[in-house]
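<context>
A single protein, sequence plus fold
<sample>
Here is the protein in question:
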Amino acid sequence: MTHVAFDGNLIARLQYHFRILKLKLGKLEQFQTNVGGELDTHLFTLQSLITNLDSSKVASLPTYWIKSDLEGIEKKISDLLYQVPLLSGKLETQKATAYGDHDDEDEDHQGKAYVYLPGIHMNVKDLTKCEVFRQVKQKFMELDIEQRGCLLSFAVFPENRDVHRTMLMYWWIGEGILPVEGAEEAVKKVL
């Protein structure tokens, strides 16, 4: 029987990690409660919109008024979706797919390629191994300096939001990225 020297720090680290895990699980439960409540609210709104539509009149009445309501609900649900942390057991499969180690070519996710990109804040080494990262870097390097500046400025906008071309043009002019003359054509070229 082999004896291993006792490490008092090991127990302290285990206790610390256990406390942190319990705190994170508590936060996750609270998050689930909050998101669940908000989803229920949106589901109720959506169901009431659908219920108020008389299917016999839908073809004859203009229903454009409901479009903005549905788009608003879709945007709110999409925002909630992006707040949910990735907790699935598919992480290793996703990494394998990103690195080209995955054999299942049939999974094309309804015509859209799914790409796992590890967060740069998590592990730069994993991120730079991705083929997609190299492709994006190559495309970026092919841009001229003006286009690079315009593209990098998107980092100040929230994710998954519509940004109007005119607003971008004025912002880029204000930052000195684009000249006033010919700005509209330059914005069209960049976008």
